[in-house]
């Protein structure tokens, strides 16, 4: 029995990845480093500083914590100035449908609230009974803390929660929390990368067609 449904933000509620990549490209231009969108997509869900630290480690680039913090600050400024991210058009109807069938819904994301509000307005955010961002937890995804925190605050056992995710770190976070996961192929097409999810679908538009939720709710 599903008593709560949790949604990741980037790649689930809103199309943001191209604009995050664009902001990173500008911020990293002095280093003459260009990233592929796949490098960002596979790390999505983690905090921004952890994403870039992982990429730097893979590329054997050395930068101290202060320099990384300044880089992340610069990237966020660029994102706020340049992003044209927006929610997927099917989201409002889908959220209304979920709310008719499930007692509670929450947004559980590695994003910061300023970036969320850049993409969606408060009317959309008002759909959620709870919002957990990376600013609200000690350990971000792939740690299970964000999803466990959401379940705890809503007083629902993790096994009765269903999660919509689009990236491996978020899937790992939710599964370690003991929750069912539906993965969306919105930013990563390779099903092997999303293989830890219980179900994999193309996007929210397909959910009502494949009866997954009817089986779970």
The name of the CATH topology of the largest domain is Rossmann fold
Reported CATH architecture of the largest domain: 3-Layer(aba) Sandwich
Poorly predicted sequence stretches spanning 5 or more consecutive residues: none
Portion in beta strands:
5-15%
Q: What does the radius of gyration come to?
A: 17 Å
Percent in helix? 40-55%
Shape: globular
Structure in words:
With 217 residues, the protein is α/β, with parallel strands linked by helices. It has two domains: 4-15 and 86-216, Rossmann fold, CATH 3.40.50.1000; 17-82, DNA polymerase, domain 1 (Orthogonal Bundle). 41% of the residues lie in helices and 13% in strands. Strand 6 (161-165), helix 9 and strand 7 (180-184) form a beta-alpha-beta unit. Helix 1 packs across helix 4. The relative contact order is 0.18.
Q: Can you summarize this structure?
A:
By secondary structure, this protein is an alpha/beta fold.
Using brief descriptors, characterize the structure shown.
10 helices, 6-stranded parallel β-sheet, 217 residues, Rossmann fold, alpha/beta, DNA polymerase, domain 1
Layout: helices, strands, pairs:
Layout: E1 4-7, E2 14-15, H1 17-27, H2 37-41, H3 48-58, H4 65-82, E3 86-87, H5 91-101, E4 104-108, H6 113-119, H7 122-125, E5 130-132, H8 145-153, E6 161-165, H9 168-176, E7 180-184, E8 199-201, H10 212-216
Helix pairs in contact: 1-4
